[in-house]
UniProtKB/TrEMBL annotation:
Pfam families: Hda_lid. InterPro entries: Hda_lid (IPR055199), P-loop_NTPase (IPR027417). This is Hda lid domain-containing protein. Residues 168-211 form the Hda lid domain. It comes from Pelagibacterium flavum.
Length: 225
């Protein structure tokens, strides 16, 4: 087998983000939000808001919900059309605070959700009061949503995930290498999945165990995507 080049590894893996229910790691920082998503369609109110920093897992959880709910994923240009068309098909509105949604259209969509009990899941990095809308219309409606905050996985959870995923692939990796990865990686369960996949392929292509040097190279490759 010929060695994979750095460029081939980037092309093969840079776009691969695991967003299935099985890949989501439940922890203290997200367990309430996860339980709420899993409770759908038995929600007490139609609107939900997930708030968390980048790589906290909110988009992963939102995509799990979208698949379970058969939701349409709103773009910045179609919120008004979704509101006008009506109906009860669930809608996912990601990055509500920074995706350039047209304010009036989003306001109408949230009103339609409340009026017709249309399920809507929103995600944001910031709390509602910090959203960059000119009026209070959207924010006043968003405050009526069920709110859940997510925090990034801690070191112990990320380490446990590495151990499990490496074991699933029958790979034996020194705990010191795992500690090295956890201390330098983007802090998300999706990034653990991507790094394990990348390290497995690098190890196979070179016929070598996963060492700290290989781990460092994998981290550098992931940082360039």
């Amino acid at each position: 087998m010929s060695p994979l080049t750095k460029e081939q590894l980037i092309l093969d893996l840079g776009h691969d983000v695991a967003q299935t229910e099985d890949d989501f790691m439940v922890c203290a920082g997200n367990e309430l939000a996860f339980a709420h998503v899993m409770a759908f369609p038995g929600w007490a109110a139609p609107m939900t808001l997930l708030v968390g920093a980048a790589k906290s897992g909110k988009s992963h959880l939102a995509r799990i919900w979208a698949k379970r709910a058969g939701a349409v994923i709103a773009s910045a240009d179609d919120v008004e059309a979704l509101a006008t068309s009506g109906g009860q098909q669930p809608v996912l509105v990601e990055d509500t605070d920074r995706n350039g949604y047209e304010e009036a259209g989003l306001f109408h969509l949230l009103n339609q959700s409340m009026r017709d009990e249309r399920p809507i899941l929103m995600t944001a990095r910031t709390q509602v009061g910090e959203w960059p809308y000119r009026t209070n219309d959207v924010k006043s409606r968003a405050r009526l949503a069920a709110h859940f905050s997510l925090t990034a996985p801690d070191d112990i959870l990320l380490s446990q995930m590495f151990v499990k995923l490496f074991a699933d692939r029958q790979l034996s990796v020194d705990p010191k290498v795992i500690s090295y990865l956890v201390g330098r990686m983007e802090r998300s369960s999706e990034e653990v999945v991507a790094l394990v996949e990348l390290l497995d392929r690098m190890s196979l292509s070179r016929g070598r165990a996963i060492t700290r040097a290989i781990a460092a190279e994998a981290l550098a490759i992931r940082s360039e995507r």
